[in-house]
Specification:
mainly alpha; single chain; globular; two-stranded antiparallel sheet; A middle domain of Talin 1; 13 helices
Length: 310
């Protein structure tokens, strides 16, 4: 039964990602907004809906390790597995408009959570602080997007795009991603429990993989379609939304306890992988197969350390 859930979840995720990308790209063209901005906002929020649903549900049930591990594990997976896999399939060109601001906020977000985690609990006040940081970032990039709209040569093409239909694709895709991620995760958790793994390990591995499946499928599909803006923007935006938005919202609903095991491996690794991505984006114009291979090795190292140390 759990295998059937995983298969159905993957199908929903694939269809949902196709719909979300199609609608997002059309909206970007219609309003002359950079697809990178769409990736950092609409696509990021859409693909992060499974993490939000899982976190709220887990926190209310008292499964704090799964809730916190889901976010941290998803962010690690997104950088050193999802981007790596997409780069191995087709090298990802780093958009020229991808600024230091985007990665700087992502680094700050990881650092803030790392510091707060040392207190052993993420209180509601900390959750509010995270949301303030996220809203500040979003307001800046939206303001910049409205100020520097892309100029298109063919204006007739943009005016012919149906806005309602594009919005429907985005909404429909987001719903399918949420349901697909939930179904896949439920199946993965049942399978993990049958094997016998702790909640913390389940959170950063099985649940993280399940909830990150939308990002994975969306990024791979975007990479195949040579939509590099959507691919890299979706991952960066999703990670930022995960670490500040999802953890912030979850902590406001119910304060999250943080196990010491997260401080030993998961949070340092999340910060290290974010730094890796920062330097790659800062000094390279393409995330090629060589970099993808290095990232992938890092993820396998993380899994090895996870099961050895925890």
């Amino acid at each position: 039964m759990c295998i059937l859930q995983i298969i159905i979840g993957l199908i929903l995720l694939f269809v949902g990602s196709e719909s979300l990308i199609r609608g997002s790209v059309n909206i970007a063209k219609r309003f002359n907004i950079s697809t990178l901005v769409i990736g950092l906002t609409v696509v990021a929020v859409g693909t992060s809906t499974p993490e939000l649903a899982i976190n709220i549900n887990s926190a209310l049930k008292g499964s704090h390790a799964i809730a916190f591990g889901n976010v941290v594990g998803s962010n690690i997976l997104n950088v050193v597995f999802v981007i790596a896999l997409a780069a191995l399939i087709y090298p990802i060109k780093v958009p020229s408009k991808f600024s230091k601001l985007d990665m700087s906020f992502l680094l700050i977000g990881n650092a803030v959570v790392y510091v707060i985690a040392f207190f052993g609990i993420i209180e509601r006040t900390a959750g509010v602080l995270m949301l303030v940081l996220l809203v500040t970032y979003l307001s800046i990039i939206v303001k910049n997007a409205l100020k520097y709209k892309e100029k298109k040569e063919d204006q007739m093409e943009t005016t012919c795009i149906d806005i309602k239909r594009s919005c429907f694709f985005i909404l429909f895709g987001s719903v399918l991603l949420a349901f697909g991620g939930h179904i896949l995760t439920e199946g993965a958790i049942i399978m993990a429990q049958i094997i016998g793994i702790s909640e913390a390990v389940i959170g950063v591995t099985i649940v993280a993989i399940g909830s990150s499946a939308p990002e994975m499928v969306t990024t791979i599909v975007a990479s195949i379609k040579k939509q590099s803006d959507i691919a890299i923007g979706g991952i960066a935006g999703s990670n930022l939304f995960n670490i500040l938005g999802i953890l912030g919202i979850t902590a406001i609903i119910k304060p999250l306890e943080v196990q010491s095991s997260f401080l030993r491996l998961d949070l340092p690794f999340a910060l290290a992988t974010t730094l890796m991505l920062y330097f790659v984006i800062r000094f390279s114009k393409v995330i090629d197969r060589r970099i993808g291979g290095i990232f992938l090795c890092c993820y396998f190292l993380y899994l090895y350390l996870q099961f050895i140390l925890c």
